[in-house]
Amino acid sequence: MINIDDILYILKDSGERRVIIKTDYCEFKINKTLLEVKKLLTDNFVQTHRACFINKNRFVSYNRPNKIITFDNGETLDFVSNKYERVLM
Questions:
Q1: How many angstroms separate the CA atoms of 64 and 80, rounded?
Q2: Nearest to residue 75, comparing CAs of 60, 85, 57, 56?
Q3: Residue 59: how many CB atoms within 10 A of its CB?
Q4: From first to last of its 89 residues, what are the pLDDT tens digits of the chain?
């Protein structure tokens, strides 16, 4: 069981047709679709790309020109599309 507060982001891995759940300590690959995982998420998660959800409680800053999200542990992610960018402002 993964503690929801430990999750930084959730990505669709199109190459392997899996979903990757990234935490502080590990990366989990599960055989579910992003839509199936989305149904299990709380309001703490926002979509930033068609293939990505982030934990907004772990989000620290957003570099708009470079489209880079920074989390509270210093990790960065560049999965931001123009369609979903407004949730980070």
A1: 9
A2: 60
A3: 20
A4: 788 999 999 999 988 889 999 999 999 999 999 999 999 999 999 999 999 999 999 999 999 999 999 999 999 999 999 999 999 98
For 47, residues 6+ apart whose C-beta sits below 8 A from its C-beta are 38, 53, 84, 87
The one-letter amino acid code at 79 reads: F
**Distance, CA of 38 to CA of 22 (rounded, Å):** 15
Placement of tokens 């299990």 in the chain: 40
- Token representation of residue 25: 């300590």
